[in-house]
Prior knowledge:
With 235 residues, this protein is of the alpha+beta class. The chain has one domain: Glutaredoxin. It is 48% helix and 13% strand. It contains eight helices and five strands. The chain has a five-stranded mixed sheet with strand order 1-3-2-4-5. Helix 2 (76-94) links the parallel strand 2 and strand 3 (99-105). Helix 3 (111-124) crosses helix 7. It is globular.
Amino acid sequence: xxxxxxxxxxxxxxxxxxxxxxxxxxxxxxxxxxxxxxxxxxxxxxxxxxxxxxxxxxxxxxxxxxxxxxxxxxxxxxxxxxxxxxxxxxxxxxxxxxxxxxxxxxxxxxxxxxxxxxxxxxxxxxxxxxxxxxxxxxxxxxxxxxxxxxxxxxxxxxxxxxxxxxxxxxxxxxxxxxxxxxxxxxxxxxxxxxxxxxxxxxxxxxxxxxxxxxxxxxxxxxxxxxxxxxxxxxx
Length: 235
């Protein structure tokens, strides 16, 4: 009897361990929607869509180095990246003529991600794309909780001094829905899985990536600093 009980106890222990291992594998397999990683990894990407006249671009048209950011206006880490990294990049590298900066939509967090991206494009019809872009990132209010509902997006347009009749008509018509969804689809095909995700190009080729909300400067890990990555590309 004691021997049989021993076998039963061993079998039970094996089953329990198996359950824990299966649970760990399941948890590990889940993919986050937005990330702020602590380690950088090179994206296995041959190329992204080339920068064209249809892109929203800041900076010197003749710059050999271009930073292309894929982001979602609802993503909290994208908001952090905008404040702590993108703005210093624009001040120190774009406005000084060293690089170009391109913003592209990876609107994957829900309907308000798509609508807010459409709204920015509609603002672009009135040459206010970047003003709207900045306003969205500084007025985040949760994901799909109404912060970027149509009524609020239209109120943003009024605050920024846009022609609200033209803006509202553009937003209501879905003029840029396909543009936003195509950008998201194309980014996914290129390997983008989370936001923010940026690529540093030199002469049209990807030479480095910024996969997460990395800081403009990080004295403890200079290899992860966006400023260091840009400086290396400019050499």
